[in-house]
Amino acid sequence: MVLSIRDLQAGYSGKTILQQVSFSVERGELVSLVGPNGAGKSTLLKTIRGLLPALQGKIFLQGKDITKLSEREFARRAGYLQQQMQVPFAYTVRQIVQTGRYPYLHWWQQAGKQDEEIVRACLSYTGALDFLDCPVQELSGGQQQRVYLAKILAQQTPILLLDEPATGLDLIYQEEIFRFCRELCAAGRTIVMVVHELSLAARFSSRLLLLSQGKVLADGKPEQVLTPELLTKAYGAPIAVKENPLTGHMDIYTTGSRRQDERQARLLQAVLGREVTE
Amino acid sequence: MRRYGIIVLVLGVCLAVAGILSLSWGQMKIPFLHVVAGLAQGMELPFLTQVPVPADEMAVIWHIRLPRTIVGLLTGAGLGISGAVLQGIFANQLADPGIIGVSSGASVGAVLAIATGAAGVTMFALPVGALVGALAAVGLTVAMAWRHGRIPVMTLLLSGVVVGMFLAAFSAAVLTLLDVNKLQEYLFWTIGGLDYRRWEHVLLGIGPILGSAVVMLLLARQLNVLVLGDNEARAVGMAVKRYRLLLLVLASLATAASVCISGNIGFVGLVVPHMMRLIIGPDHRRLLPASLLAGAAFLVLCDAIGRVIVPGCEIRVGIMTAFVGTPYFLYLLRRYQRSLD
Questions:
Q1: What ipTM goes with this model?
Q2: Mean pLDDT score of chain A, rounded to an integer?
Q3: Which range of residues forms the domain containing residue B98?
Q4: Contact across the interface for A103 and B239, Cβ inside 8 Å
Q5: Cys-Cys crosslink for B296: which of A98, A148, A275, B76, Cβ 3.0 to 4.6 Å?
Q6: Pick from A92, A99, A105: CB nearest B281
Q7: pTM value?
């Protein structure tokens, strides 16, 4: 067992966000955390990485209690890609990816030849080697994400925790990120990530965890989790799931009620500054 | 890499030129050859022994201008590197050594040394008072920002501003009680200058400035990671609080020691790192050495120019750096505004 969470309660001081969360992840699994905004997906990921302290319960990485890991040891076991990374100043791609080597260097050491080779290998794997000496700020969103992925690959950890790695990217980049993840898991890495696009999560993940209001509502294979009943309950709105006969992928969409439609139509008239007719 | 080597070489040459100009220019003009020969003979180096250097020139070089120049080099280097480190810690290119209360703390220390009359008793009272005041102000700033074992950057910035304002008000309150002579003494101190610097000033500043500069240079790689923010730095295994505090203390110490031996000198800690970042980029492994060299060269050059620009009158280095720094800063501001359009 690579990751094991027991009866976790987490959140910020004075505000509990997650409750009674328990699950374990085996080596090579690609687990996507899905659920509505505010369900606690990012909080869960941050707590697993130790960036937020657990209020109650325990988290074990490769059998070891995370509160007993030193910062360096932790960074050698789990990589963490944060949501919407911001790079101040004009740091180049190489300098950013080099920071992934931090947990392997003592404080007096500088990055050596071997580190440089790893940096280059990771960048060529994600297809960003051409930008080696470009400032990260000048790259497009999709290219930046390739760089940040290379950075946490350079950290060479068995576990990767990714917070919305594909959100806001073009379709091609989105699928590319998911393909990288699937490939890495097939090679023995374990990935836990937050995903918003349900159909993409269904296509690429080996397992989904549906969170709602701070609790795990469902845990299992994509087709077991993405049912109309569970999604309707999680998102609080009527949701339908259909398998697309052409692609074999799942189509997931909301089915609004008629009464609501009428109300919306009236409100729209008000927004447009027209007379509201009853 | 080769470009960086050339830049360092150029900075080194600038530093040497600034140093020689500073030893040569002033009320008594000393030819360059005599400057170099005087230095070599004073250190009993085996070259230029045949060049005759008059005794009065020898005395001016060794007793007046060399300590003054070395104090300038130390101050410039200390302000340059700590400015770069603070801009890194705050991930903000407008941060300068004043931002965490160092300058205003030093002013309070200085004004107290003058008000109590201690400055009249020994020449060390003023610099030591400034040093103590500066370090106390930084301690107060950090203590105010410390929450739940963390030092959030934004809180640190705000508490620095608050502490600075409070201490400025405190200095002003003490000043209203002082007589004209003491007011003048304080006024001269606030406009940093290098006149009448002696070997004692060198001895006072060399330890803290060089010591903290060396450690800051060694921690440049860590600073690169720290700049990316708390979560990112912890994600790669950095003990964020420890390094942030350590770098903050080192930068404060270097700044405080600089202020202590030459008074408040603005713009060096702000403009020099900024300029270097534009030329060689934000990687602190290169930025810190370059800021150190450029700061030293810039300050000593400003001081040398200040001695000769108006004949028969000496313009203090704190005024010179502001005169040179302000237009450059305005230029940067305009450029930044244009990039927003």
A1: 0.87
A2: 92
A3: 2-336
A4: no
A5: B76
A6: A92
A7: 0.89
